[in-house]
């Protein structure tokens, strides 16, 4: 049974740079074992020591998320298309966004504090002028 597997850029070092490889297997687990026999180390990047998919890896069978198809027990058929995608989260943008939000909050607090001081000074000047 030939199953097409699309490999993300970050894992292509395991496939000799190939964007797409073929494999066989009745389930996703079987397919990953088959792929690992030809592309050593690939399975280890996708599966935890506990034998489950890493949470930062998304795998799709014909555009359906395998987590809703039985995960590693998802049934495969000849001609299926598998897409492996690393989950994208956080990173430099996440830190930049957190810093921007933090500095925005600090600036907003400073403006409020400054406004309160200015308002207090204005009241003080009005009382002194009497």
Tally of contiguous helical segments = 3
- Largest sheet at a glance? 5 strands, mixed
Instruction: Trace the largest sheet across and list its strands.
Output: 2-1-5-3-4
Shape summary: globular
Radius of gyration over C-alpha positions, nearest whole angstrom: 27 Å
Please give the number of β-strands: 5
Proportion of residues in extended strands = 15-25%
Average pLDDT score: 80
Spans where pLDDT lies below 50 across 5 or more residues? 103-109
Distance between the first and last residues' Cα: 95 Å
Order of helices and strands: EEHHEEEH
**Residue share in helix:** 40-55%
Instruction: Tell me the structural class.
Output: alpha+beta
Notes on the structure:
Strands 2-1-5-3-4 form a 5-stranded mixed sheet, covered by helices on one side. The chain has 3 helices and 5 strands, in the order ββααβββα. With 130 residues, it is of the alpha+beta class. The protein is globular and about 30 Å long. The longest helix is centred in the last third of the chain and has 39 residues, at 91-129. It starts with a strand and ends with a helix. Residues 103-109 have low confidence and may be disordered. A hairpin with a 2-residue loop joins β3 and β4. It has helices spanning 28-38, 42-46, 91-129; strands at residues 3-6, 20-23, 57-61, 64-65, 81-86.
């Amino acid at each position: 049974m030939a199953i097409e597997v699309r490999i993300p850029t970050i894992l292509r070092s395991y496939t000799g740079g190939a964007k797409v490889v073929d494999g066989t297997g009745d389930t996703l687990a079987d397919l990953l074992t088959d792929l690992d026999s030809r592309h050593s180390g690939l399975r280890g990047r996708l599966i935890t020591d506990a034998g489950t998919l890493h949470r930062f890896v998304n795998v799709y069978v014909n555009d359906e998320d395998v987590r809703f198809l039985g995960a590693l027990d998802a049934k495969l058929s000849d001609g299926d298309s598998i897409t492996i995608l690393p989950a994208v989260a956080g990173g430099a943008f996440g830190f930049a966004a957190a810093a921007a939000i933090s500095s925005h909050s600090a600036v907003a607090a400073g403006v409020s504090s400054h406004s309160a001081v200015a308002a207090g000074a204005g009241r003080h000047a009005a009382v002194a002028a009497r």
